[in-house]
Design goal:
Layout lengths: L2 H15 L18 H10 L1 H11 L13
Helix pairs in contact: 1-2
């Protein structure tokens, strides 16, 4: 097993130990294709919890179908 694989497994175990404390139950699964390096980076950032936090922190997006041309 190489260093990258060991780091990946260590991070994955750490994230698996964290308990989810979300007020809203998670009900949707979304799949994303990543390279192995991107997956390791995502896990280092905090994995799924980090993604959810980024979505919550984002500013309101314009509605779909809204014409944003100026």
């Amino acid at each position: 097993m190489n260093e990258e694989d060991e780091e990946f497994e260590r991070i994955e175990r750490e994230i698996a130990r964290r308990k989810e404390q979300s007020a809203e139950p998670l009900t949707v699964v979304y799949t994303v294709k990543l390279t192995q390096n991107q997956r390791v980076k995502l896990l280092q950032l905090g994995g799924p919890k980090w993604i959810r936090n980024q979505i919550e922190r984002s500013t309101e997006l314009p509605s779909l179908g809204e014409n944003n041309a100026r």
